[in-house]
Amino acid sequence: MCRTCGCDDHDHPHPHQRRISLETDLLAKNERIAEAVRARLEHDRVVALNLIGTPGAGKTTLLEHTIRALSPTPMSVIEGDQATDHDARRIAATGCTVTQVNTGTGCHLDASMIERGLAAVRPRAGSLLFIENVGNLVCPALFDLGERAKVVTMSITEGEDKPLKYPHIFRAASVLVLTKVDLAPHVDVDPARCIEHARKINPELRVFPVAAPRGHGMAEWIGWLRSELEAMP
Amino acid sequence: MCRTCGCDDHDHPHPHQRRISLETDLLAKNERIAEAVRARLEHDRVVALNLIGTPGAGKTTLLEHTIRALSPTPMSVIEGDQATDHDARRIAATGCTVTQVNTGTGCHLDASMIERGLAAVRPRAGSLLFIENVGNLVCPALFDLGERAKVVTMSITEGEDKPLKYPHIFRAASVLVLTKVDLAPHVDVDPARCIEHARKINPELRVFPVAAPRGHGMAEWIGWLRSELEAMP
Fold first, then answer.
1. Domain residue limits, chain B
2. Do A180 and B167 touch (CB under 8 A)?
3. How much is the ipTM here?
4. pLDDT, mean of each 10-residue run, chain B (233 residues)
5. What is the pTM of this model?
6. B103: which residues sit within 8 A by CB, 6+ positions away?
């Protein structure tokens, strides 16, 4: 008899095994929803980018300046935070369509939240969809949201060694936007060393060093976004 | 018959309930170990502080300067990171006893890691133990490590609204160390507004604004650490 729940199944998993298999189930369920989201976005010709970085990496500021630079390209934004609609209000002030997802104690967005977000923003064909994940360099790396690419955003003030210490997101991402590079002299951090560390983890990483409010590096980032839109079949 | 595993127990939890109860079990198990850690630290007269903040909040830099200022007070450090022993090496360079815990894809330290860490650093009676958590403002808020107090560290470059957007850690912490305040003029962030937001979430929060490498605010922080050591029975 199984000691876990008293049933007769001798192959009943032990509690520890059950926990692992439930975690796997959770990720597998997310994968299934993410694939459905991806298929829908491809069908609708929407380029979705999943922005991941710590609180204060500059994700919302990057989006504000990106949206203003790309306008009138059709765009929409799904904003993730534990609490408040501050970021959604900042995006709405640019005139862009936006919805806010609050996760409470949750540490990441999952694909089902994107399904609901899509119902709210209804992205147009041939548009860009930015998903700003919960501020966290760690957990969002594990969750596929059906995006075209993960974009890791990291502020130069975070220090040169962060790609080595938190490698998973740098491995999962296709693009690194290195923000606040104008602050490098004040914090004694070398952007070149930071990029070298990121490429050590992921040699394929496309890197855009920017200082969004000053416009530094923005032409290259905007150019890449346009090329992604144009590459859509 | 239960549709989950085929046994005859009609009260068998549904898969979703089971996941929630397993998460609760996981936290309950952590609480039990944390209480044992807390009892042992109190018995050994060790003041343990759990430092929590994003990657790049300045936790290790704060510790380097704190250790040098407090020397020869007996101290030890448990360092948490996903990968590398960079931080442990920085701490070791100050002459302080240190051990590194790597969590892989894990997003926080748990109490069992502290049990193992204690076996490695063996803190002396009447000493300070600093636990530097994995760089993450979100998940470590949920896990008791048996510490005397949680210390949230936040860099002024992260922006004024972070306590409102990530309230859980500001509620769980007793102390906020607001780092890199010398950068405030360069990032157009008002430290007073940031503190106001943090106190809105937690009116009891003790706040130390610092710029550790310049020594700014360090006397107050060091003074508080000394008073914690002296208050020990």
1. 28-230
2. no
3. 0.85
4. 37 47 80 97 97 97 98 97 96 97 94 97 97 96 97 97 96 98 94 98 98 97 97 86
5. 0.89
6. B80, B81, B82, B109, B113, B134
